[in-house]
Structures
1.
Amino acid sequence: MAKITGYGFWIDIKSLKGADKRNWITCLVTSGLAGGIAGWFSVSLSADNIETFGSMTEQNYIWFAIAEIVLIYTAVYTYIQVLKNQDILFQKYNEMSMIGGALGFILIGIPMAAVSPLISYKIGFVDLFLGFAIGACINGYRFYKLHIK
């Protein structure tokens, strides 16, 4: 079964066996690649919508978009495969992290969206995801302190 380490921020890969280890590593790699493509997309257009990496006819943006979608679905599928084989403790950790992410989205992302017109800031998906990530990290740490340490 997966061992939760790093104050609730990491899973010890050595604790996984066989297909779970392979699926977990696949999930990490595909998530990283999808994040890299998303980051590239976020900087490929400047604030004035000027393409910084050449014109759209020179670049095949559609292939990057398709690759990102495939990578995201692969990461989700492999994560679910790992999650199905774990014990109740790991499943509760997953639930608590996702609940924290949802609360972070609501308590951080929505106020940012409400205030953004007042400060002339255009909020995007990455800003809302940041709220989710902060909430998930906080609740992952709380779970570690309450149930593991």
Note: The radius of gyration is 18 Å.
2.
Amino acid sequence: MAVRLVEGGRTVHELPLAEGDGMCAGYHGWAAGDFGDAPQR
């Protein structure tokens, strides 16, 4: 699993998400419908 920044059809940067625990924590929250609090303005 990775995130890619693409500009003009060319990959500018790619960040692997499998390294570390961020992907796992984020995915489980998303699957449970927990998208966090709305930002305060």
Note: The chain has one helix and two strands.
3.
Amino acid sequence: MKFSYRLLSSMLLLAAPFFSFASTSNLEATSGSNIAVSTDSVVTTEVVKAEPKLKISPTGRLYVNAAGLSLPTSESQWGVAIPEARIGLKATYDIYTFRIDVGFDYGKVSLKDVAITAQFTPKWSLKVGHFYQPFGLQATNTGTRASIIHARPSAIFDPSRSIGIMAMYEHSQWFAQFGVAGEPKAAVLTANELGKTGYSASTRLLYRPFREDSKFLHIGWSGAWVSPEFNSDPELNHNSFTFTATLPTTISKITAFSEVVTDAHSMFKFTPELLASYGRFALESQYYYGRVFVKDGLNGGYLNGSNDFVGQGVYAKLHVLLLGNGYKYKSSEGKIDRLAPKSLNMVFNYNYLELNSIGDIKHRMNDASVTLSWYINRYLTWRLRGGYTWYWEHMSQQPIGYNHAKPNGFGGVETSFQLLF
């Protein structure tokens, strides 16, 4: 009898997808059967969704750098450094991706990318945690993912990592990001230590008419609104912005100039961007503009624009692929993807930066460099950079007799072995 029930169950299971039939009596399912008979005698099958699997992989990076420098004092210096070592993990579960990275910058522990991303549809995703808010092409090209060893002088406008939320839309020719976040210091100071928490809102929009290998183009625009930042001086706390430009080396920390803008109400900044590639050539470029709205202390704190602080800059990077199969476009981030192993890439880089009050230039910096990158294998990259930097300060900031026409000069050659996994 049990055999007859099992045989009948098997026959019904095979026939269920194609037709239904009437039954004069209810069937009692035997143990292990997945057949169910409803009250109207229509046979259905129960589909059980498989439980998503948790996948975890380690991540990390390491820089080992050495350089020889010609300092502004006409002295020479050479040295070695490990400017950053990082360890972390990446995990995926269902529609979620988790990432946590902890870095050791010159021996000091620092929090890097710590975030959760939910991919709701192929077009829409949401990211929450500690990461770079959207603002321009170079905000995605940090660390070993960059094509040069050092940040550009115009990186003074790039955002720092902060705790926030970001929505992303990606579809065919269009790419958009929008994020809101607390100020960067909120990741290391409590609310009562901050006094109050500053905030920012930013967006990045791209149009990408074509994205073929070795032939792609995108045109973009980013904008951001930022409130005043934390300062350890109570009189300047959340009443100011600090702009600091450092010279391009990792073995020394040398400040070219630093400016504190007081009585600040807020800052608006924007940057158009261009990324293009054809054959063995690629071009990256951005223009930056930032304006700090300064309160008028003589008229009840109103804004009149006469005391506003303005910064602007531009950079261009020309890539030439000496060895390799061409550049590829990374659609999910809107940038050049990491080159294949055995590739040899050369980048010519030029930057200009200017900071001033209205009609009064206070600081300027030019930087030119050439960087050679050899992608040894999937994980290891070697870079060699040579460059020179000129920077000026306004005559009113210098002692009597200062020659404004003669800038400070800084040059050097630096190499870096970079491990990324």
Note: The helical segments are 2-15, 191-194.
